[in-house]
Automatic annotation (TrEMBL):
It is found in: Membrane. It comes from the Bacteria. GO terms for cellular component: membrane. The keyword Glycosyltransferase does not apply. The keyword NAD does not apply. One of its GO terms (molecular function) is phosphate transmembrane transporter activity. InterPro entries: Phos_transporter. It is a multi-pass membrane protein. The chain crosses the membrane at residues 46-68, 80-102, 108-128, 140-162, 219-240, 252-272, 307-328. Keywords: Membrane, Transmembrane, Transmembrane helix, Transport. This is Inorganic phosphate transporter. PANTHER family: PHOSPHATE TRANSPORTER.
Length: 332
């Protein structure tokens, strides 16, 4: 009983740490365009994102429930607390490594890959809930392509709407619009990304026998939202530089188009209870916006490196989680 209590407490601590790291790791994606176009100063953008992330995080729970039950069945998972703790440690390691090198990797891919890897290490491939897991994988894989298309469409519409507008006046006006789109972007980030830690903590409570359903408890929602808000307030300026400037040279009209495109996709995924990668969606929206303006405007070499990181994140985090599980299993 003592080891179950210890493991559950450790899971909650590491889940909140994951949300905190997710906050400063992925906040950059939500505010990168507004900072890069000087619509907002980094300090103001980060604080606004922290508040909007918190509000978004406590508003919805559908994605949290999907994380709780769609990857593996927490009620069928033996040694579940060790599995969840191993997954969290692996995801945190991967997030910190990619943050250190300024790579806009996906926290969503990292945690989902880690849960799957640790669960497989514990109980074999049969433990996966293939219906739910494949649905989540489809959302993660398709959302970047949808984001590219949406970014292209929104930017194409903007080009038609502002065709005869004076460039200086248009950019000045759109900077004000970007403040709104950055706030919306941060809100939608909270509605989707903070949910993942809530789902993990709920899995731990079920594994410990302290909860019998998949409802997200109020204290879990507030704790996860607060951790993400605090992490957001730290900011992630290395990733702002990559997302906001290295994919393409952004003007206010490009930033607003990318924000609107990505926020609509992230919020749409939240409404249908599917986790998506805010990193993937925002970066892909910028690529779509750049392609609508001029295909050569997109620095495809940087984009290619980002895509390679997307591809390797899930298998790498799964392998890390399996290793962490075997080590933790020896200890506990």
């Amino acid at each position: 009983m003592d080891s179950i209590i210890l493991l559950t407490v450790l899971v909650v601590i590491f889940a909140l740490a994951f949300d905190f790291i997710n906050g400063f790791h992925d906040t950059a994606n939500a505010i990168a365009t507004s900072v890069s176009t000087r619509a907002l100063s980094p300090k103001v953008a980060v604080m606004m994102a922290a508040v909007m992330n918190f509000i978004g995080a406590i508003t919805f729970t559908g994605v949290a429930k999907a994380i709780t039950k769609d990857i593996v069945d927490p009620f069928a998972l033996e040694n579940g607390s060790v599995v969840i703790l191993a997954a969290l440690i692996a995801a945190i390691i991967w997030n910190l490594v990619t943050w250190y090198f300024g790579i806009p990797s996906s926290s969503s891919h990292a945690i989902i890959g880690s849960i799957a890897g640790a669960a497989i290490a514990a109980a074999g491939f049969s433990i996966l809930n293939y219906g739910g897991f494949l649905k989540i994988l489809e959302a993660l894989l398709l959302s970047p392509f949808i984001a590219i298309a949406m970014g292209f469409i929104v930017m194409s519409l903007f080009k038609v709407i502002f065709k005869k507008a004076h460039l200086y006046k248009t950019n000045k006006g759109i900077r004000y619009l970007q403040i709104c789109t950055a706030a919306i972007q941060s809100f939608t980030h909270g509605t989707n990304d903070a949910q993942k830690a809530m789902g993990i903590m709920t899995m731990a409570l079920i594994a410990a026998g302290w909860q019998t359903g998949d409802d997200i408890q109020t204290w879990v929602r507030i704790a996860a939202a607060t951790a993400m808000g605090l992490g957001t307030s730290i900011g992630g300026y290395k990733i702002i530089k990559t997302v906001g400037g290295k994919i393409m040279k952004l003007r206010p009209i490009n930033g607003a188009a990318a924000d609107l495109a990505s926020a609509s996709i992230i919020f749409g995924a939240t409404l249908i209870h599917l986790p998506v990668s805010t990193t993937h969606v925002i970066s892909s929206s910028i690529m779509g916006v750049g392609a609508a303006q001029r295909v050569k405007a997109v620095k495809w070499g940087v984009a290619r490196k980002i895509v390679m990181t997307w591809i390797i994140t899930m298998p790498t985090s799964a392998a890390l989680a399996a290793i962490c599980y075997f080590i933790l299993n020896l200890i506990f």
